[in-house]
Design goal:
The complex is a heterodimer of chains A (about 190) and B (about 200). With about 190 residues, chain A is an all-alpha fold. Helix content of chain A is about 75%, strand content about 0%. By secondary structure, chain B is mainly alpha-helical. Chain B is about 75% helix and about 0% strand. In chain B, helix 5 runs antiparallel to helix 6 and helix 6 packs parallel to helix 8. The termini of chain B are far apart. The chains are: A mainly alpha (about 190), B mainly alpha (about 200). Chains A and B meet through helix 1, helix 3, helix 4, helix 7 and helix 8 of A and helix 1, helix 3, helix 4 and helix 5 of B.
């Protein structure tokens, strides 16, 4: 497998590795209508799904709403999960679609998006027990312009490829790359201040 | 490489998306240029930190809201939806297998084929019956206009099925007729299934 193929595999592998694996029988039970099994799935994955929502929106209330919406949609769509990809990757993709869909409709509704995120919401949610490293980066991410932040979170934090990010955000692959480079530059500047 | 490479190139280097030739040329430059080497290290460090960011769990339990949103207290409609889907597949597979068998020439005499067609039709009819009974039990949750439209469409489909069945000729080529029958049965099942989902 060459580098490009490894990069292709990146997103799913990363998603699977970063989440605790979901026992197939748990998923099968949930698909059969067992909500208790689904609750266990929720407990295993909620941290990761909420992180995505919070980093993408930088707003704690919206992040909770979107996390709830993502799990609700996952429950309703469980019948469409065919197992080609891992369950974590599937669930994660459902959440990404929820967050991006919400961003689009919000953007249409408000005709504007704040270019600076809510740093304090992200800051408050960062675990205090972790040495400042992660927290500092999260604070910096929250200050990025929307498009650059979305691309950075999806590519560098979540591990999706540019082709995937481009499709998700409805932008060209080249635009995704350009936004990522912009985000990295802004973050490097912010973190070295 | 005499001039400093662009940041784009340095990012691509970190992301390992450069060609072998590009990488080699850049590495030659990096071996001599501390500034670019520092930039590469900064980007690498950032990428590593991003991938290692900790999960941020919500401040409150979101399960009650999810339970409410999915109306978990009601009997699991999704379970029925999955059952409906599998019944459609079973029915389609039965008729599909019959068609395949006849077209590949391993076929059977016409009279047994007619018997198998009837068996496949019966499988469809049973599946449709299960769907309709379940639909009936949930009638109160489905918009009335959808039920009216469903009944009208099912009547039309059933009339078409009867027409095609009447055209079946035990002594002639039935492939086209059977294909039409398969499509009609699938249409009927999918219609019932779609209407049933309106309440979910």
């Amino acid at each position: 497998m060459d580098r490009r193929e490894q990069a292709k595999m990146g997103a799913y592998a990363m998603v699977e590795n970063r989440s605790s694996s979901t026992a197939p029988d748990l998923v099968a039970q949930a698909r059969g209508g067992d909500f208790k099994a689904f609750e266990e799935i929720y407990r295993r994955h909620v941290g990761r799904i909420h992180s995505l929502c919070l980093r993408m929106t930088t707003n704690r209330d919206r992040a909770e709403e979107l996390t709830q919406e993502a799990f609700t949609r996952a429950w309703l769509k469980l019948g469409t999960f065919r197992g080609e990809s891992g369950f974590s990757a599937w669930l994660h993709r459902v959440a990404v679609n929820v967050v991006i869909g919400d961003g689009r409709s919000r953007s249409r509704r408000l005709k504007r998006e704040s270019s600076v995120g809510n740093v304090e919401d992200l800051h408050r949610s960062a675990p205090t027990g972790v040495p400042g490293l992660g927290m500092d980066l999260d604070r910096a991410i929250a200050t990025l312009p929307d498009r650059a932040r979305s691309v950075f979170v999806l590519h560098d934090v979540e591990g999706y490829r540019h082709e995937e990010v481009g499709k998700m955000l409805d932008i060209a692959t080249g635009t995704s790359k350009a936004q990522l480079h912009r985000a990295r530059k802004l973050l490097r500047e912010a973190l070295t201040k | 490489m005499k001039r400093h490479p662009s940041e784009e190139l340095l990012n691509d280097y970190v992301d390992e998306t450069l060609s072998a030739a590009e990488r080699l040329e850049l590495e030659r430059h990096l071996a001599e240029c501390d500034d670019c080497g520092d930039t590469v290290e900064e980007i690498r460090s950032l990428v590593r930190r991003a991938a290692e960011l900790p999960d941020l769990p919500p401040a409150r339990d979101l399960l009650p809201g999810i339970r409410q949103a999915t109306k978990q207290d009601r009997p699991g409609f999704q379970r029925w939806g999955a059952l409906a889907a599998s019944l459609i597949l079973v029915g389609a597979a039965a008729l599909g297998a019959l068609l395949l068998q006849q077209r590949t020439g391993q076929s059977v005499a016409q009279v047994p084929a007619m018997v198998e067609l009837r068996a496949a039709e019966e499988a469809f009819a049973k599946a449709a019956q299960v769907l309709l009974e379940t639909l009936e039990s949930r009638r109160g949750e489905i918009p009335e206009e959808a039920l009216v439209a469903l009944e009208e469409n099912i009547t039309l489909i059933d009339e078409s099925i009867d027409e095609v069945r009447r055209s079946l000729n035990p002594d002639g080529d039935q492939v086209e007729s059977e294909r039409a029958l398969t499509a009609l049965y699938q249409q009927k099942m999918q219609l019932i299934w779609k209407v049933s989902r309106l309440s979910s």
